[in-house]
Amino acid sequence: MNFTALQKNGLKLMLSIAQKSNGQPVQAPVLAEFEDLKVGYVGKILFKLRKGGLIQAARGKNGGYSLSRDSEEISVFDVLKVLEVKEYDSRICPNLRKNNSCAHSLDCGLRPVMQSIDTYIEKLTSSISLAALIEDEKEMVNRLRQMEM
Q1: In 29-61, which positions are buried (b, 16+ CB within 10 angstroms) versus exposed (e)?
Q2: Which CATH entry fits the domain spanning 5-148: 1.10.10.10, 1.20.1250.20, 1.10.357.10, 3.30.70.60?
């Protein structure tokens, strides 16, 4: 499965906010510089994250963005879901959605495989919080290995 650039960058921004906030809002230009992204693009992502209820914005000289909940309560899946592209639903065959004929429309062996992959990814990403991402890489590798068993 490929995640969109929007989702990948959104995860990076959420992680940066979780790491850098220390109880204070983080400004978009600071996030943009740290992640080496354009401020306008960061603003677009932050708008979607705020609209999705994952971050909050504070105005003013000391304003910026902070998590709307504790980093333990926000999962990777939460971020991916808020930033997903709505025009494609991976659970529905594109041929069925568009009423196109397909040799597999009635009996498709691929559909349950794709649904199982989606379910696995959802379960995995739902079980990983932003707080867990703050751990060092070695700890995350160990955590993922334990989850495989």
Answers
A1: ebbbeebebeeeebeebbebbeeeebbeeeeee
A2: 1.10.10.10
What pLDDT shows up at residue 108? 75
Burial of 93 (0-12, 13-18, 19+ CB in 10 A): middle
Helix axes 39-51, 5-20, angle to 10 degrees: 80
Residues 6+ apart with CB under 8 A from 72: 129, 130, 131
Tokens of 28: 């978009």
Contact by Cβ (8 Å): 11, 51: no
Structure confidence at residue 147 (pLDDT): 81
Q: pLDDT for 14-27, tens place per residue?
A: 999 999 877 789 99
49 within 8 A of 83, measured Cβ to Cβ: yes
Query: Which residues, in sequence order, are bridge partners of residue 57?
Result: 65
In terms of Cα–Cα distance, which of 20, 117, 116, 125 is closest to 82? 125
Structural domain boundaries of the chain?
5-148
Q: How far apart are CA 16 and CA 79, in angstroms?
A: 13
